[in-house]
Amino acid sequence: MAKIIVKNSEGMKSPFLKGILTSSLLDAGIDFSLAYELASTIKQTINEKRQVSTSELRDIIISQLKDNADKEVLERFLSATNISSTIMITSAEGGAVPFSRSQHRLCIESSGLSSDESTLITMNIYNKLLNKGYSEISNSELGRMTHQLLLSEMGVKVAERYLVWADFLHSGRPLLLFIGGTAGVGKSTIATEVGHRFGIVRTQSTDMLREVMRMMTPQRLSPVLHASSYNAWKVQPNIKADEQMTEQLLISGYLQQAELLSVACDAIINRAVTEKVSLIMEGVHIHPGMLEKIPQDDSIIIAPIMLSVLKAGKLKEHIKGRSKEVPERRSKRYLEHFDEIWELQSYLIAQADQHQIPIVSNINREKAIQEVMRAINDILFPYFSHDIEKVFPL
Predict the structure, then answer these.
(1) Rounded (10°) CA dihedral 204, 209, 210, 212
(2) Hey, how many other C-beta atoms are within 10 angstroms of the C-beta on 336?
(3) What is the DSSP code string of 250-318?
(4) How far apart are CA 160 and CA 385, in angstroms?
(5) Rounded to the nearest 10 degrees, how much is the dihedral formed by the CA atoms of 54, 59, 65, 71?
(6) SS3 35
(7) What is the signed CA dihedral for 13, 19, 22, 27, rounded to 10 degrees?
(8) What is the DSSP string of 164-181?
(9) How far apart are CA 318 and CA 95, in angstroms?
(10) I want to staple 323 with a disulfide (CB 3.0 to 4.6 A). Which of 3, 144, 162, 331 is the partner?
(11) Torsion angle, alpha carbons of 218, 220, 223, 226, to 10
């Protein structure tokens, strides 16, 4: 399908992107579900066009809003797209940056609210700034305004989470986030979403590390490394061809593979600690034993999370879904070994529970992301302040 090209008044051309349009509608205060639906409809409307001007595109958006949204939503969009002045956010050091509704929304989401709730809070703040004629506001004043609105609309706990998150951001301390779980629970998806909200660009999958090590190590020298985590037990020394799986054998094979990978994992972690940068590491090989090897450094925040899908039918659905989203991953092989995968999940959950690692059930992705955010915030809570005077001093 040919790309749709958008041409502005100066003749500059760029591809039409539904995600960008969705984000623009969100910035105008439209809730996510409606913004996404409208962006999809608008893309279908202009699909037959090879090129559309920005003014034509704006007219199409306005037409869709008139047909599908109330008058207030349309007025917010028109107001947002016609504002000529920019509200600047100033820091105590004297710097200034334009107020970004998307960044403000992501910051609130990072304290554990849903996308829709965060969008509503951000739009309330933005409209308040506009109505009062602000062209400039300090970071502390904006933080206090946001905290007050969260306190009145969402309650004390949410307002405290926001302060803890803001204090963490101000501290500059790196976060090492570890997301474990067996095949099919959605580790990479959740890691990507959380990384986006936290602004963490350095991520690492233990599966990718395993692939690199496989390329460097022949199978005959390390058969456990070349197996899957759930059937590594079959290639352990002294295992007979007709040997039946037991829980002990399954866990033994998994731990042997995890131990082989720990060298590469340790190198990635140690570099992040040395450079004091945030890192997200996800994979089936994340377990308490690996976390205990992390160098102790008071300037680093370590946050382990164990993802799970606690209903067998749902986990099978997740596994089937993997082959649709990522063609290289074949669900048939995983489903053939579902009993081993289920048994391995039971072990990982038991280990997480024993070591007081938060366990998040990923039945619904958005809810799981919220739970992960809240779990991370709970880990941050003892280290950072939820005192408004300390976090946002005047």
Answers:
(1) 140
(2) 11
(3) HHHHHHHHHHHHHHHHHHHHHHHHHHT--EEEESTT--HHHHTTSPP-TT-EEEEEEEE--SHHHHHHH
(4) 9
(5) 120
(6) helix
(7) -80
(8) HHHHHHHHT--EEEEEE-
(9) 46
(10) 331
(11) 30
Token pair listed for 121: 């809070």
Residue 78 one-letter amino acid:
L
The class (CATH top level) of 175-383 is alpha beta
Each of the 394 residues of the chain gets a pLDDT tens digit; together they read 455 666 555 555 667 777 777 777 776 667 777 788 888 888 888 776 667 777 777 788 888 888 877 777 777 677 666 544 578 899 878 888 888 888 898 889 888 888 888 888 998 898 888 878 888 999 999 999 999 999 999 999 999 999 999 999 899 899 999 999 999 999 999 999 898 888 888 999 999 999 999 999 999 899 999 999 998 888 888 887 778 888 999 999 999 999 999 999 999 999 998 999 999 999 999 988 888 888 778 889 999 999 999 999 999 988 887 655 554 456 788 888 899 999 999 999 999 999 999 999 998 888 999 999 999 999 999 999 999 999 999 8
Question: pTM (2 decimals)?
Answer: 0.76
What does the CA dihedral 219, 259, 362, 27 come to, rounded to 10 degrees? Answer: -90
Rounded CA-CA distance 293/34 in Å is 47
Task: Give the β-pairing of 279-282 and 301-308.
Answer: unpaired
Length of the chain: 394
Question: What are the residue ranges spanned by the domains of the chain?
Answer: 5-82, 88-154, 175-383
Which whole-number Å values give the CA distances from 284 to 77, 89, 255, 364, in the listed order?
44, 42, 11, 20
48-63 in b/e form (b: 16+ CB < 10 A) is eeeebeeeebeebbee
Cβ proximity of 115 and 109 under 8 Å: yes
